Amino acid sequence: MGAKCAPTYANIFLGWWEEVFVYPSLAYQHHVRNWHRYIDDLFFIWSGSREGCTDFIHSLNSNPHNIFLTHSISNSSTSFLDLRIFVQGNKLVTDLFRKPTATNALLEFNSFHPWHTKVGVPTGQFLRIRRNCTRDQDFLMQARDLTDRFRQRSYPKRVVATAFQRARQHDQASLLIPVGRSRESQTRFITDYNDSWGQGKHPKNYVRGFKNTYQPYAWRLRTKAKEG
């Protein structure tokens, strides 16, 4: 939160902190089986005793850089970001986690946002809980709660039902596969919004004028290069 550069700065600083204080630690090398960090939130699996884990965290808090870790240690379940992670047999299972203080902050359907934006919100939210929930019964329970929250925000039943059915066609494993993005060959002209656009020339005319100005100049440069 705050300046746009804050997450990048935090990632760089905490990456350095891990390299200097965490990875060289003997406790880390002998007992930490998995270590994951998202900016300043940490999740790791400890193979030693609870007392040893507590001592390890206290040693990390003993630093001159004003970094202090609050922690939660459990043998069965914990929460990390928007996930509830718990042990089932010999596997880790995930479910959606919402803070007790969380409110219904979904976009109001009667807002003046474009139609595709309002329809896309339920799709994204249902796919999110499908991605977070390993078990089908957890997904259905979270979907019912999400449906009630969308109805409170005046979303039509058809829009919510369509988004739910789309998410139901997937499983968690398929949604965790990274999707490659194709590189566009088009050059996009991006500028700040201005309400005078509609009163003057169409934006395409500006782009067309730019091409008419640039292309002859580029042609003259190529001609001079050949002559030289």
Descriptive overview:
By secondary structure, this protein is of the alpha+beta class. The chain is 49% helix and 13% strand. It is built from eight helices and five strands; from the N terminus they run ααββαβββααααα. It has helices at 6-22, 26-31, 50-61, 115-132, 136-152, 157-168, 172-175, 203-227; strands spanning 32-38, 41-46, 77-80, 83-88, 91-96. The chain has a three-stranded antiparallel beta sheet. It has a two-stranded antiparallel sheet with strand order 1-2. Helix 4 packs parallel to helix 6. The longest helix is centred in the C-terminal third of the chain and has 25 residues, at 203-227. The chain is globular.
